[in-house]
Amino acid sequence: MATNETESTPRVRKKRERMRREILDAARALLMEEGPDAVTLGSVSGRLGMTKPALYHYFPSKEALTRSLVAALIDDEVGELEMAVERAGPGENPIASMIRAFHAHYRKDLHAFRFVYGQSHLYLNPELGIDVEMVRNEITPRTRHLFDMLETRFAGPDLDKPERRSIRRLGFVAWMSVLGLLTMIAIAEGMGDPLLYSDEELLDTIVSVFSRVTP
To answer: Which residues lie closer than 8 Å to 214 by C-beta, 6 or more apart?
Structure first.
């Protein structure tokens, strides 16, 4: 006698995960094309040709969809920065590579930057699903690995704990510097009031500062 498939079977789990990826891809496409306000359960379900009740089976609320989309976007960001650090050659500064990669990653899609680092997220808006629990359990572990890599790249056999902490702190400050630059670019473009200096000038200055203080 055949048994009904349940949520716990490998086949159903695989199908469910594939559908979740399709939903997140649709949400990401809407974000890139129209901006953060376009990402709603209605717009995503409409893009996929499914009903909202069907979408609820995979994401029971907009908050759940937002959390998953933010996590996916941060995974993309961290993955790209990690590759930039890994690709840095013997004569290159890994922190400089990270700085330029962070800027390049979001410069081509400021909508994604606003969605991940916008004001509502910076101030933790539970209505959007961005809360302390998400930052602690989902965002922080993703970014921590990046600074682990930077520490490893600079760490020699004689590097003691204070020096290792210094490297991590320096990498974090470099990351924050580019975060600030991207925030100003997003604000300036949103207001139609370009910054006084070009991206290249500002990036070169940031890289120059951190290249002078890294080992």
So the answer is: 93, 95, 154, 167, 170
Cα distance between residue 65 and residue 55, in whole Å:
10
Domain 1-60: CATH superfamily, name plus number: Homeodomain-like (1.10.10.60)
For tokens 């004001």, the residue is 119
Closest CA to 20 of 59, 60, 72, 52: 59
For the chain, domain boundaries: 1-60, 61-213
pTM higher than 0.90: no
CB 65 within 8 A of CB 23: yes
Predicted local confidence at residue 1, as pLDDT: 39
CA-to-CA dists, residue 15 to 3, 6, 45, 205, 211, angstroms: 18, 12, 17, 48, 48
Contact yes or no for 134/67 (Cβ under 8 A):
yes
pLDDT recorded at residue 120: 54
